[in-house]
């Protein structure tokens, strides 16, 4: 009799276990296309203590009865090592993607090689002086010189404005990215609280952990992080060795204007301590803003300053058609404000093409000196080793090399991240075919357990309702 009731309990446990396994397979299928979802698996074990049939004179023979199946837990199928690799490489990918995109924008701004690039415009400027040296009295050629000077100055100013605007855009994005990091940190702390509350009562909050891991993956691309799981189910997320999230508490990053760096944003912790990070979108933005674009701006400014000084020094020594001398051709202090002098704009006769006032109007030797600045060693200032054209072409070549490196590294990192993600999905991703096969397997087991329960019920019915009827 005891065995019959024990058999009913065993069959009931089997029914409940197979139903839970079927429900879990259905949950996997429902989330087959959910980003960040890890497939779940019901772990079954027959670890219930067996029942020993009591007997005073029981022979030394096996007499234990199994008590059925139990659900140990419902676990996420996930590889933490692959998670670590994906997050580390995602940070590198984020860094090189931002660097690549920023440098490619600089290439578009400079537009080299191209008909409207600064190199061709400088060449046209020097050629105009060359023509003026041949026809110093021609107002048409003088007009050409003035117009080429205006075009050159406006092009340099335009390049400066666009590069400065790119820096400001990157600076704005630094602030946006810091806000996004803080938002993710707050969400992670909230999920930590929910997960810890579930773990403490013995639950296994798999779906909450999936949401947390998805946020960590997103954070890893923004800034390089390290993640440590605690015994209570929470995670600590650190940047540069300092915890951004610890348990249910989240620190915050902030941006402050740096007066030593054009008032661009510097990233700090909430207490003003600098944040130590080396990769991710945030690091890429700061490198592009403070190094990539800043170097191009600095070199462009040096080019403009030297151009202003060299052209003005030679022009001041010459004479215009009206006999005037000492006039500047350019005004300004650098790339931001270079312009053709007002006197040149208002009167073509002030363009100093002559070196000797006594030889006016046919003297064009000063214009020739100005044209020869094209081939003079003027750059870089202080220790010149090249011409204006050499300096600018070197700038463009260096940019091209840096861009090519960033493009190559971004492509390599993207391939690596995709490969790691494919490996991770092979572990944690849902296979519809596999889950359908599991449903069939669990359903058959459920039906068999139900049939066993029906059989045991019939046996009890015989014992209770049909035995002992003789003689009544």
From TrEMBL:
What's in the GO CC field? bacterial-type flagellum hook; extracellular region
Tell me its family: Belongs to the flagella basal body rod proteins family.
Name of the encoding gene:
flgK
| Keywords carried by this UniProt record | Bacterial flagellum, Cell projection, Cilium, Flagellum, Secreted
Keyword Mitochondrion annotated: no
Does the entry feature the keyword Ribosomal protein, yes or no? Answer: no
Residues forming the Flagellar basal body rod protein N-terminal domain are: 8-37
Q: Where in the cell is it found?
A: Bacterial flagellum; Secreted
Task: Supply the Pfam families for this chain.
Answer: Flg_bb_rod (PF00460), Flg_bbr_C (PF06429), FlgK_D1 (PF22638)
Q: Which GO terms describe its biological process?
A: bacterial-type flagellum assembly
Boundaries of each Flagellar hook-associated protein FlgK helical domain copy? 103-330
What is this protein identified as?
Answer: Flagellar hook-associated protein 1
One GO MF annotation is: structural molecule activity
Subcellular location, principal: other
Q: Which domain of life is it from?
A: Bacteria
Give the Flagellar basal-body/hook protein C-terminal domain ranges: 429-465
